[in-house]
Structure formats: structure tokens, C-alpha cells
Amino acid sequence: MSYEKLHPSDLQGSLEIYLSASILIDTLEAEIPRTVPTAGSPNPQASSYTQYLELWRWVEQLLWRTIAIAVRISTDEPTLSALFRQYFACSSHWIPSFRPQHRSTVSTLFLHFVISQAKTTKNPSSDMGTPSWLPEARSVIQEYRSVLNVSTKFPRAGERNVLVEEFVDLCVATWEAGGAVGEHVGWVLDVRFFSLYLLDNLRSPSFIDSMVGNPANVQLTSHLSSHVKTVLCFGGFKPGDTNSSAICTSGGKGVGDCQRRCRTETRGHEHK
Predict the structure, then answer these.
(1) pLDDT tens for residues 13-30?
(2) Residue 89 neighbours by CB distance under 10 Å
């Protein structure tokens, strides 16, 4: 599968060949039971990922190349949308550590795609007022989050976890494209808290800028305030610092008291 390398000037021809092969994927995927191995599973070898691993390697490579070419030559929206759905239908069988680089690329392309479509077209909404594309986007975000969790790590001093930074910004952009509804912001905040484990400081200025000064987001601002306080509280001390005069944003004295107060306040916000 390297037609685009053999004929770099004929990307359209390569895409047509790959598309002819991708037609088989829907039938194959529909025939495979979706069983993903979980922690403590008595028989992990029985999962659909393990049993069909060689097939998944071929399928992922095919779809990844097809999507990359389709995006590069600006393929029509229905074809690109169908390719993304094929990819994520298959990826539901895979463990997070399978082809993380390719999945990161495809997930990012998909989120940019749905955000762009939301800005240029009027999407039909469900009965609850949620855009019809948003549940699918959130499903992809959740899967991508799992991939990042096993494929990236907390950065060293002077380094940046660019993939997680971009992921957080894309999540905020997705929420905004879906109408920036305050009642639906919980999953965005959940992503922000998740990013604490993989980022060395507060990122995503677009998120903070979109919240500050908006009367419709009073509850969200309260959650964000708690989030910032938690970051400062847990990240504002040097290892081994037990000085009772150390700065604590929640009014505690010393590291232990400060962290206990932060945990209590954070839990209180989560249950509101």
C-alpha cells in the first residue's frame, strides 16, 4: 500500500485505488463481534483486537493512507465523512496503544473537519438541542484521550506536551462549534482536569478567554476558578516544602493542610 509514493503526481489515482479496497471494510467490521480486552480480563486473547490483529494492521494502514490523501486533495465532504466513520468504527476494536501516532493524526483531522463543517453549514439538531454531529465528536474525543493517556507523558522542564495542548484547544473549539452551551460544558472541564496529568501548567488561553466576562457562564467560571486553584495549590510547592508560610490559594497552612483543603473544595464543585 504505497501507490502515492510510486506515483506522487497522481494522488487522485491512488485515492481511487484505496477507496475501492475500503469498500470491503464495512462488511468485514460488521461481521466481527466488538470485544475489547479490559483490565483483569480472564481471557484477553479472546478480544476482537487480538484475534484479528493482522487484519486491523492492514485496515488501519489502508484507511490512514486513504484519509491522508483525501484531506490533502480536498475530497468531497461525503467521501471524507464516510472514511472517518469507517476508521472510528474499526478503532472501537483497538486498544489505546495500537498505532497511537496514526490515530492522533486521524482524530485531529476529524475534529478539524467537524468544526469546519459546523461553521459553514447549519447542522440538524436532536430533540435536546444538541447538534447531531456532537455525540460522534465527543466519542472520538474520548477515544483520543485514551490514546494520549498511554502514548504521552508529563513533560520535563523546558519541554511541552504539544499533542495534549492541541487536544485541549480542539475540545474547546468543538464545544464552541456546538453552540457553547453552558449545560454541556462538563465534558470540557473533564478534559481540562485530565490535562493536568500531562501538562506542566495552564494552557489553552482560548478556553479562559471564552469564559471570562460571559454572564451565561457563571457556574462554569466557578468551576474554572476551582480548577485554577487546584493547579496552583498542588503545583505551587517545591518537592519537600513543608514551610508553614508557603503560599496556599485556599487559605491552608503548609503543604498538607493546603492540599486537604483543595481536595475538599474540588469535590464540592464536582457535586454541584
Answers:
(1) 999 999 998 888 988 888
(2) 15
